[in-house]
Amino acid sequence: MAVLTIFNHGTGFNRAKGVEANEMVGWLHTHVVGNEARIDNATPVAGNHIINEGPGSSSGGIALPSEVNPMTGRGIDDEATKFGKAQGVKRSAFARAFAGQSGGGKSAMAGNISGHGWNENVQRTVQIIQTLKFEGLYDVTHVNMVGWSRGAVTSIRIANKLYEVFGNGIVCNIFGLDPVAGQDAGLTMQDTQVLPPSVQTYVAVLAMNEQRSSFAPQDMSRMQVTDPTSTTTCFLPMPGVHNEQVMGRSGVSTEPQANISRNLAFAFLQHFGTAFDARPAPAYISASAMCGAYAEVRLGTQGGQYHNTSGLKNKIVGLGLGQRAFTQPQQMVGYVAGGGASYWVNEHHRACFKEAYPELYRKIFRSNGVRDSQLEAAVGVEATTPLGRSLVGMGYLHVLNHRLMVQLGAGRYVGRPNANLWPGHLPKF
Fold first, then answer.
1. Which residues pair with 325 in a beta bridge?
2. What is the DSSP letter of 191?
3. Measured at the alpha carbon of residue 20, what is the angle toward residues 68 and 291, in degrees to the nearest 5?
4. Which of 293, 317, 355, 367 is deepest in the core (most CB within 10 A)?
Protein backbone atom coordinates (compact mmCIF):
# COMPACT_ATOMS: atom_id res chain seq x y z
CA MET A 1 0.00 0.00 0.00
CA ALA A 2 1.51 3.31 -1.11
CA VAL A 3 -0.04 6.25 0.77
CA LEU A 4 0.08 9.83 -0.49
CA THR A 5 -1.10 12.62 1.83
CA ILE A 6 -2.49 15.88 0.45
CA PHE A 7 -2.63 19.07 2.52
CA ASN A 8 -5.09 21.63 1.10
CA HIS A 9 -4.88 25.15 2.51
CA GLY A 10 -7.93 27.36 2.72
CA THR A 11 -8.57 30.75 1.16
CA GLY A 12 -5.85 33.28 1.94
CA PHE A 13 -3.53 30.67 3.47
CA ASN A 14 -0.49 28.88 2.16
CA ARG A 15 2.47 26.94 3.52
CA ALA A 16 4.03 30.16 4.82
CA LYS A 17 1.03 31.84 6.43
CA GLY A 18 -0.36 28.52 7.66
CA VAL A 19 2.78 27.76 9.62
CA GLU A 20 3.17 31.34 10.84
CA ALA A 21 -0.40 31.38 12.19
CA ASN A 22 -0.09 27.83 13.57
CA GLU A 23 -3.14 26.93 11.50
CA MET A 24 -3.92 23.23 11.60
CA VAL A 25 -3.10 22.29 7.99
CA GLY A 26 0.21 24.15 8.26
CA TRP A 27 1.08 22.38 11.50
CA LEU A 28 0.31 18.98 10.03
CA HIS A 29 2.44 19.33 6.90
CA THR A 30 5.27 20.80 8.97
CA HIS A 31 5.43 17.55 10.91
CA VAL A 32 4.73 15.00 8.17
CA VAL A 33 7.52 12.50 7.56
CA GLY A 34 8.83 12.23 4.01
CA ASN A 35 9.39 14.39 0.95
CA GLU A 36 7.04 16.64 -0.99
CA ALA A 37 5.98 15.38 -4.40
CA ARG A 38 5.83 18.05 -7.09
CA ILE A 39 6.51 18.91 -10.70
CA ASP A 40 9.37 21.39 -10.83
CA ASN A 41 10.07 23.05 -14.18
CA ALA A 42 8.37 20.12 -15.96
CA THR A 43 10.51 17.63 -14.01
CA PRO A 44 8.71 15.29 -11.56
CA VAL A 45 10.05 15.05 -8.02
CA ALA A 46 9.04 11.94 -6.09
CA GLY A 47 7.55 12.18 -2.62
CA ASN A 48 4.80 10.96 -0.33
CA HIS A 49 2.82 14.17 0.17
CA ILE A 50 1.54 17.22 -1.69
CA ILE A 51 0.94 20.74 -0.34
CA ASN A 52 -1.59 22.91 -2.16
CA GLU A 53 -1.55 26.65 -1.53
CA GLY A 54 -4.96 28.19 -0.90
CA PRO A 55 -6.69 30.55 -3.35
CA GLY A 56 -5.73 34.16 -2.67
CA SER A 57 -2.71 33.12 -0.62
CA SER A 58 -0.14 35.84 -1.35
CA SER A 59 1.87 35.59 1.87
CA GLY A 60 5.56 34.78 2.05
CA GLY A 61 6.29 35.51 -1.59
CA ILE A 62 4.70 32.21 -2.63
CA ALA A 63 3.01 32.20 -6.05
CA LEU A 64 -0.77 32.02 -6.18
CA PRO A 65 -2.13 28.70 -7.51
CA SER A 66 -3.46 30.59 -10.54
CA GLU A 67 0.04 31.87 -11.36
CA VAL A 68 1.52 28.40 -11.85
CA ASN A 69 0.88 26.00 -14.72
CA PRO A 70 -0.45 22.90 -12.92
CA MET A 71 0.94 20.64 -15.65
CA THR A 72 4.55 21.83 -15.62
CA GLY A 73 5.08 23.69 -12.36
CA ARG A 74 6.41 26.70 -14.25
CA GLY A 75 5.13 30.22 -13.77
CA ILE A 76 2.41 31.13 -16.26
CA ASP A 77 4.08 34.42 -17.19
CA ASP A 78 7.30 32.59 -17.99
CA GLU A 79 5.49 30.17 -20.26
CA ALA A 80 3.41 32.91 -21.86
CA THR A 81 6.62 34.69 -22.83
CA LYS A 82 8.10 31.48 -24.18
CA PHE A 83 5.06 30.85 -26.37
CA GLY A 84 4.95 34.29 -27.95
CA LYS A 85 3.11 36.68 -25.66
CA ALA A 86 6.16 38.94 -25.48
CA GLN A 87 5.98 39.47 -29.24
CA GLY A 88 2.37 40.64 -28.95
CA VAL A 89 1.00 37.60 -30.76
CA LYS A 90 -2.74 37.07 -30.28
CA ARG A 91 -3.02 33.53 -29.04
CA SER A 92 -5.86 31.07 -29.44
CA ALA A 93 -7.81 29.64 -26.51
CA PHE A 94 -5.96 26.36 -27.06
CA ALA A 95 -2.59 28.09 -26.91
CA ARG A 96 -3.54 29.94 -23.74
CA ALA A 97 -4.70 26.72 -22.12
CA PHE A 98 -1.49 24.96 -23.19
CA ALA A 99 0.47 27.71 -21.45
CA GLY A 100 -1.60 27.28 -18.32
CA GLN A 101 -3.67 30.43 -18.79
CA SER A 102 -7.02 28.75 -18.23
CA GLY A 103 -9.13 31.82 -17.51
CA GLY A 104 -9.88 34.34 -14.76
CA GLY A 105 -7.70 36.89 -13.07
CA LYS A 106 -4.58 36.07 -11.11
CA SER A 107 -5.05 38.50 -8.25
CA ALA A 108 -5.25 37.54 -4.60
CA MET A 109 -8.63 39.27 -4.51
CA ALA A 110 -9.96 36.93 -7.21
CA GLY A 111 -8.80 33.98 -5.12
CA ASN A 112 -10.42 35.27 -1.97
CA ILE A 113 -13.74 36.18 -3.56
CA SER A 114 -14.30 33.49 -6.17
CA GLY A 115 -11.75 30.85 -5.21
CA HIS A 116 -9.77 31.41 -8.40
CA GLY A 117 -6.87 28.98 -8.31
CA TRP A 118 -8.61 25.97 -6.82
CA ASN A 119 -9.19 24.47 -10.26
CA GLU A 120 -5.43 24.59 -10.74
CA ASN A 121 -4.95 22.85 -7.39
CA VAL A 122 -7.20 19.99 -8.52
CA GLN A 123 -5.43 19.72 -11.87
CA ARG A 124 -2.00 19.96 -10.28
CA THR A 125 -2.73 17.21 -7.76
CA VAL A 126 -4.04 14.75 -10.32
CA GLN A 127 -1.17 15.54 -12.70
CA ILE A 128 1.40 14.85 -9.96
CA ILE A 129 -0.25 11.55 -9.02
CA GLN A 130 -0.51 10.45 -12.66
CA THR A 131 3.14 11.29 -13.21
CA LEU A 132 4.26 9.49 -10.05
CA LYS A 133 2.35 6.36 -11.02
CA PHE A 134 2.97 6.23 -14.74
CA GLU A 135 6.68 7.02 -14.51
CA GLY A 136 7.20 4.41 -11.79
CA LEU A 137 8.25 6.94 -9.15
CA TYR A 138 5.57 6.10 -6.53
CA ASP A 139 2.68 3.73 -7.15
CA VAL A 140 -0.02 5.61 -5.25
CA THR A 141 -2.86 3.34 -4.06
CA HIS A 142 -4.28 5.38 -1.16
CA VAL A 143 -4.71 9.13 -0.80
CA ASN A 144 -5.29 10.83 2.55
CA MET A 145 -6.48 14.43 2.46
CA VAL A 146 -6.96 17.17 5.01
CA GLY A 147 -8.16 20.68 4.31
CA TRP A 148 -9.77 23.72 5.84
CA SER A 149 -12.46 25.95 4.33
CA ARG A 150 -12.10 25.94 0.52
CA GLY A 151 -9.23 23.53 1.11
CA ALA A 152 -11.67 21.01 2.59
CA VAL A 153 -13.93 21.35 -0.46
CA THR A 154 -10.86 21.11 -2.69
CA SER A 155 -10.28 17.69 -1.12
CA ILE A 156 -13.77 16.62 -2.23
CA ARG A 157 -13.13 17.95 -5.74
CA ILE A 158 -9.78 16.13 -5.95
CA ALA A 159 -11.45 12.88 -4.88
CA ASN A 160 -13.98 13.26 -7.70
CA LYS A 161 -11.29 13.94 -10.29
CA LEU A 162 -9.18 11.00 -9.06
CA TYR A 163 -12.23 8.76 -9.38
CA GLU A 164 -12.79 10.04 -12.91
CA VAL A 165 -9.21 9.13 -13.83
CA PHE A 166 -8.49 6.03 -11.73
CA GLY A 167 -11.91 4.72 -10.69
CA ASN A 168 -11.59 2.65 -7.51
CA GLY A 169 -7.89 2.16 -8.17
CA ILE A 170 -7.08 4.89 -5.64
CA VAL A 171 -8.81 4.86 -2.25
CA CYS A 172 -9.39 8.26 -0.59
CA ASN A 173 -9.88 9.28 3.05
CA ILE A 174 -10.80 12.91 3.79
CA PHE A 175 -10.79 15.00 6.97
CA GLY A 176 -12.36 18.41 6.36
CA LEU A 177 -12.46 21.44 8.64
CA ASP A 178 -15.56 23.58 8.03
CA PRO A 179 -15.80 22.83 4.30
CA VAL A 180 -16.89 26.08 2.63
CA ALA A 181 -16.98 26.38 -1.15
CA GLY A 182 -17.76 30.11 -1.15
CA GLN A 183 -20.64 32.06 -2.66
CA ASP A 184 -22.94 29.58 -4.45
CA ALA A 185 -20.26 27.12 -5.60
CA GLY A 186 -21.36 24.60 -2.99
CA LEU A 187 -24.76 24.43 -4.69
CA THR A 188 -23.90 24.86 -8.36
CA MET A 189 -20.71 22.79 -8.71
CA GLN A 190 -21.47 19.08 -8.60
CA ASP A 191 -17.98 18.00 -7.60
CA THR A 192 -18.27 20.01 -4.36
CA GLN A 193 -21.30 17.97 -3.27
CA VAL A 194 -20.58 14.35 -4.23
CA LEU A 195 -18.46 11.72 -2.52
CA PRO A 196 -17.53 9.09 -5.14
CA PRO A 197 -17.31 5.36 -4.27
CA SER A 198 -13.52 5.63 -3.98
CA VAL A 199 -13.89 7.68 -0.78
CA GLN A 200 -13.64 5.21 2.07
CA THR A 201 -14.05 7.60 5.00
CA TYR A 202 -15.13 11.22 5.18
CA VAL A 203 -15.19 13.25 8.42
CA ALA A 204 -16.16 16.93 8.47
CA VAL A 205 -16.15 19.41 11.35
CA LEU A 206 -18.84 22.10 11.03
CA ALA A 207 -18.54 25.46 12.83
CA MET A 208 -21.79 26.20 14.63
CA ASN A 209 -21.38 29.95 15.21
CA GLU A 210 -20.23 31.02 11.76
CA GLN A 211 -23.01 33.13 10.20
CA ARG A 212 -21.62 34.68 7.01
CA SER A 213 -24.09 33.70 4.30
CA SER A 214 -21.39 33.17 1.66
CA PHE A 215 -19.68 30.76 4.08
CA ALA A 216 -22.46 28.15 4.03
CA PRO A 217 -20.83 24.74 4.66
CA GLN A 218 -21.15 21.47 2.80
CA ASP A 219 -23.23 19.90 5.55
CA MET A 220 -25.34 16.74 5.49
CA SER A 221 -28.10 18.45 3.51
CA ARG A 222 -25.70 19.25 0.66
CA MET A 223 -23.48 16.19 0.47
CA GLN A 224 -24.40 13.13 -1.56
CA VAL A 225 -22.80 9.73 -1.00
CA THR A 226 -22.67 7.80 -4.26
CA ASP A 227 -22.32 4.39 -2.60
CA PRO A 228 -23.16 4.20 1.13
CA THR A 229 -21.90 0.61 1.24
CA SER A 230 -18.36 1.73 0.42
CA THR A 231 -18.25 5.21 2.01
CA THR A 232 -18.53 6.00 5.73
CA THR A 233 -19.26 9.60 6.75
CA CYS A 234 -19.51 11.53 9.98
CA PHE A 235 -20.34 15.22 10.40
CA LEU A 236 -19.24 16.82 13.68
CA PRO A 237 -20.90 20.07 14.82
CA MET A 238 -18.46 22.20 16.83
CA PRO A 239 -19.09 25.53 18.61
CA GLY A 240 -17.16 28.54 17.36
CA VAL A 241 -16.76 30.45 14.12
CA HIS A 242 -14.86 29.44 10.99
CA ASN A 243 -11.30 30.27 12.11
CA GLU A 244 -11.72 29.00 15.65
CA GLN A 245 -11.68 25.40 14.41
CA VAL A 246 -8.04 25.51 13.27
CA MET A 247 -6.04 28.39 14.73
CA GLY A 248 -3.36 28.17 17.36
CA ARG A 249 -0.60 30.21 18.94
CA SER A 250 2.88 29.21 20.15
CA GLY A 251 2.25 25.52 19.59
CA VAL A 252 -1.01 25.52 21.54
CA SER A 253 -4.38 26.20 19.94
CA THR A 254 -6.32 29.13 21.34
CA GLU A 255 -9.59 27.24 21.63
CA PRO A 256 -10.35 23.76 23.03
CA GLN A 257 -12.33 22.85 19.89
CA ALA A 258 -9.24 23.66 17.78
CA ASN A 259 -7.22 21.34 20.02
CA ILE A 260 -9.81 18.60 19.53
CA SER A 261 -9.88 19.05 15.75
CA ARG A 262 -6.09 19.03 15.51
CA ASN A 263 -5.79 15.84 17.54
CA LEU A 264 -8.60 14.23 15.57
CA ALA A 265 -7.09 15.12 12.19
CA PHE A 266 -3.71 13.82 13.36
CA ALA A 267 -5.21 10.52 14.55
CA PHE A 268 -7.29 10.19 11.37
CA LEU A 269 -4.34 10.64 9.01
CA GLN A 270 -2.05 8.48 11.12
CA HIS A 271 -4.64 5.70 11.21
CA PHE A 272 -4.71 5.63 7.41
CA GLY A 273 -0.93 5.52 7.04
CA THR A 274 0.42 9.08 7.23
CA ALA A 275 3.52 9.32 9.44
CA PHE A 276 4.36 12.34 11.63
CA ASP A 277 7.38 13.25 13.73
CA ALA A 278 5.40 14.87 16.56
CA ARG A 279 1.98 14.94 18.19
CA PRO A 280 -0.16 18.07 18.52
CA ALA A 281 0.16 20.06 21.72
CA PRO A 282 -1.69 19.58 23.94
CA ALA A 283 -1.87 15.90 23.04
CA TYR A 284 -5.08 14.06 23.86
CA ILE A 285 -3.99 10.44 24.10
CA SER A 286 -7.05 8.98 25.81
CA ALA A 287 -10.82 9.10 25.55
CA SER A 288 -10.96 10.76 28.98
CA ALA A 289 -8.60 13.53 27.79
CA MET A 290 -10.90 14.13 24.82
CA CYS A 291 -13.86 14.28 27.22
CA GLY A 292 -12.03 16.88 29.31
CA ALA A 293 -11.52 19.05 26.23
CA TYR A 294 -15.15 18.65 25.20
CA ALA A 295 -16.16 19.58 28.75
CA GLU A 296 -14.26 22.87 28.31
CA VAL A 297 -16.15 23.43 25.07
CA ARG A 298 -19.44 22.72 26.79
CA LEU A 299 -18.54 25.09 29.64
CA GLY A 300 -17.83 27.71 26.99
CA THR A 301 -21.29 27.27 25.51
CA GLN A 302 -22.83 27.45 28.98
CA GLY A 303 -20.94 30.68 29.66
CA GLY A 304 -21.77 32.30 26.33
CA GLN A 305 -18.13 32.17 25.23
CA TYR A 306 -18.87 31.37 21.58
CA HIS A 307 -20.35 34.36 19.81
CA ASN A 308 -22.02 34.31 16.43
CA THR A 309 -20.37 36.18 13.56
CA SER A 310 -21.21 39.86 13.74
CA GLY A 311 -20.08 43.29 12.53
CA LEU A 312 -20.52 45.34 9.39
CA LYS A 313 -17.35 44.03 7.72
CA ASN A 314 -18.42 40.40 8.13
CA LYS A 315 -21.91 41.29 6.93
CA ILE A 316 -20.51 42.86 3.75
CA VAL A 317 -17.89 40.18 3.09
CA GLY A 318 -20.35 37.41 3.91
CA LEU A 319 -23.13 38.86 1.74
CA GLY A 320 -25.29 39.01 4.83
CA LEU A 321 -25.47 37.10 8.11
CA GLY A 322 -27.71 34.22 9.05
CA GLN A 323 -27.78 31.11 11.21
CA ARG A 324 -26.42 28.01 9.52
CA ALA A 325 -29.25 25.65 8.61
CA PHE A 326 -27.79 22.57 10.31
CA THR A 327 -27.79 24.32 13.72
CA GLN A 328 -31.60 24.60 13.70
CA PRO A 329 -33.15 22.32 16.37
CA GLN A 330 -34.99 20.20 13.82
CA GLN A 331 -31.71 19.61 11.97
CA MET A 332 -29.42 18.98 14.95
CA VAL A 333 -31.31 15.81 15.92
CA GLY A 334 -29.81 14.22 12.82
CA TYR A 335 -26.28 15.13 13.85
CA VAL A 336 -26.08 14.18 17.53
CA ALA A 337 -28.06 12.17 20.09
CA GLY A 338 -30.44 14.49 21.90
CA GLY A 339 -30.08 17.25 19.30
CA GLY A 340 -28.95 20.75 20.17
CA ALA A 341 -30.09 20.45 23.79
CA SER A 342 -27.91 17.41 24.39
CA TYR A 343 -24.81 17.33 26.56
CA TRP A 344 -22.94 15.88 23.60
CA VAL A 345 -21.20 18.38 21.37
CA ASN A 346 -21.19 15.77 18.60
CA GLU A 347 -21.13 12.01 18.11
CA HIS A 348 -17.36 11.78 18.57
CA HIS A 349 -17.86 13.35 22.01
CA ARG A 350 -20.51 10.78 22.89
CA ALA A 351 -18.33 7.88 21.70
CA CYS A 352 -15.38 9.11 23.81
CA PHE A 353 -17.55 9.58 26.90
CA LYS A 354 -19.04 6.11 26.56
CA GLU A 355 -15.56 4.58 26.33
CA ALA A 356 -13.92 6.64 29.10
CA TYR A 357 -16.78 6.60 31.62
CA PRO A 358 -19.01 3.60 30.86
CA GLU A 359 -20.56 3.53 34.34
CA LEU A 360 -21.20 7.25 34.37
CA TYR A 361 -22.63 7.02 30.86
CA ARG A 362 -24.99 4.25 31.92
CA LYS A 363 -26.16 5.94 35.11
CA ILE A 364 -26.70 9.40 33.64
CA PHE A 365 -27.78 8.70 30.11
CA ARG A 366 -29.13 5.15 30.18
CA SER A 367 -30.60 4.83 33.67
CA ASN A 368 -34.12 5.50 34.93
CA GLY A 369 -33.04 8.43 37.06
CA VAL A 370 -32.39 6.61 40.37
CA ARG A 371 -29.93 8.42 42.63
CA ASP A 372 -26.56 6.78 43.31
CA SER A 373 -24.58 8.04 46.30
CA GLN A 374 -21.51 6.10 45.18
CA LEU A 375 -21.33 7.72 41.78
CA GLU A 376 -18.24 9.83 42.44
CA ALA A 377 -16.24 6.94 43.88
CA ALA A 378 -17.37 4.57 41.15
CA VAL A 379 -16.32 6.72 38.22
CA GLY A 380 -13.68 9.02 39.72
CA VAL A 381 -15.29 12.29 38.64
CA GLU A 382 -14.74 15.34 40.81
CA ALA A 383 -17.08 18.30 40.94
CA THR A 384 -14.25 20.79 40.41
CA THR A 385 -13.05 19.35 37.08
CA PRO A 386 -14.35 20.67 33.74
CA LEU A 387 -16.15 17.35 33.28
CA GLY A 388 -17.92 17.58 36.63
CA ARG A 389 -18.71 21.27 36.24
CA SER A 390 -20.11 20.83 32.75
CA LEU A 391 -22.37 17.96 33.82
CA VAL A 392 -23.57 19.91 36.85
CA GLY A 393 -24.07 23.00 34.73
CA MET A 394 -26.49 21.16 32.44
CA GLY A 395 -28.35 19.53 35.29
CA TYR A 396 -27.22 15.93 34.80
CA LEU A 397 -25.48 15.84 38.18
CA HIS A 398 -25.77 17.84 41.34
CA VAL A 399 -23.54 18.22 44.39
CA LEU A 400 -24.75 16.91 47.74
CA ASN A 401 -22.41 16.84 50.77
CA HIS A 402 -19.45 17.40 48.47
CA ARG A 403 -20.38 14.37 46.39
CA LEU A 404 -21.74 14.20 42.87
CA MET A 405 -25.21 12.73 42.60
CA VAL A 406 -27.24 11.67 39.61
CA GLN A 407 -29.91 14.27 39.02
CA LEU A 408 -33.48 13.00 38.87
CA GLY A 409 -34.60 12.81 35.27
CA ALA A 410 -31.33 11.42 33.95
CA GLY A 411 -31.64 8.92 31.13
CA ARG A 412 -33.76 11.18 28.95
CA TYR A 413 -31.26 11.12 26.09
CA VAL A 414 -31.34 7.41 25.35
CA GLY A 415 -31.96 7.91 21.62
CA ARG A 416 -29.39 8.45 18.91
CA PRO A 417 -29.37 9.51 15.26
CA ASN A 418 -30.23 6.84 12.75
CA ALA A 419 -27.03 7.74 10.92
CA ASN A 420 -23.98 9.95 11.50
CA LEU A 421 -22.56 7.81 14.31
CA TRP A 422 -18.83 7.99 15.00
CA PRO A 423 -17.32 5.32 12.69
CA GLY A 424 -16.29 2.27 14.65
CA HIS A 425 -13.14 1.70 12.58
CA LEU A 426 -11.72 5.15 13.39
CA PRO A 427 -9.57 5.95 16.43
CA LYS A 428 -11.13 8.34 18.94
CA PHE A 429 -7.83 9.97 19.88
1. none
2. G
3. 115
4. 293
